[in-house]
Each structure stands twice: as structure tokens, then as C-alpha cells.
Amino acid sequence: MKISVLFFLLALCSQLQMVGSTQIGVSGKLTCSGGRPWCFHIVLAEQDRKHSHDTINSVGTKCIWADSFDYALSGSQESDGVADNYFEVMTTIWHNCTLIRPKSILRVQREIIVVPIEKENFAFQWNGDLVDEGERCDFYTQY
Fold it and tell me: Which of 48, 56, 122 has its CA nearest to residue 80?
């Protein structure tokens, strides 16, 4: 009995990896031509489940008159759960840069990027012209 418990514990320990944190970052330029004020909210997150995510970093709601905005977000992730060896990194932007849907909030989400948890640093760029891009949503809280 004791030997089988010992083997079970050894097998369990071999499945767990001691990995340090991973620095994850995104940067880019958002544009909204038209010479009018527009607002946006950016979230860099790690997807855990369908509706549960770890926010890595965010730009809170910001309103500007300029046609473009340079952004950079970064943060670290420690692990991604038992037996999950990959981070699923997603960037979501909510904005109101629309000509055809006045007073609407649109949500644009970049394709999810899979990053091995062993990687120490991972950075990517995402530039976007936001005019009328995305799906309509009710508020800035939906991933």
C-alpha cells in the first residue's frame, strides 16, 4: 500500500513543472480617422475558461481627439493551471469609432495566441484601423 502511494505521488510530481513567470506584452497603434473624439478600452488577458480570464494589463477607458494612439501593455503570468503548459493570450479592444452605428460600442478581439509557459518573454504587435470594426456589444466588460 505504501509503495503504491509513493509511486502515485512520484507520478504526480513528475507532471508538475516548476516554471518561473512569463513576461507577456503587446504594443501597437490604433487609428480612428474622422476628426472627431473617440474612446477605447484595451485589455491584455490570458484565457482560462470560456468566461474566466486573467487580466494581465489594461488601458482603462480613454477618450482622445487624435486620429491615432500608440499603446503598450505588459505584465507577467505565473502558471496556467494543473497540466496546462500553455498560456492562451488574447487582446480585446472596445471602442466607439464608428460612422454607421452612432452611439454604439464595438468589440474587436485579436486571434488567441498560444504561448508555452516555459517561455520567459513573449511580445507581439497589433495595429488596427478601428473604423466600424468589430461586433456591437453593450459595454466594455465583455471579453
Answer: 48
Q: Is residue 3 part of a domain?
A: no
| Grid coordinates of 130 | 478601428
Query: Hey, which bits of 65-130 come out as E strands?
Result: 68-77, 86-95, 105-109, 113-116, 121-125, 128-129
Q: Domain for residue 128, yes or no?
A: yes
Q: Are 131 and 99 in contact (CB under 8 A)?
A: yes
Q: What domain range is 130 assigned to?
A: 19-137
Q: How far apart are CA 97 and CA 106, in angstroms?
A: 8
28-46 pLDDT tens trace: 999 998 778 999 999 999 9
Single pTM value for the model: 0.79
Question: Which residues of the chain are modeled with pLDDT < 70?
Answer: 1-19, 49-52, 81, 139-143
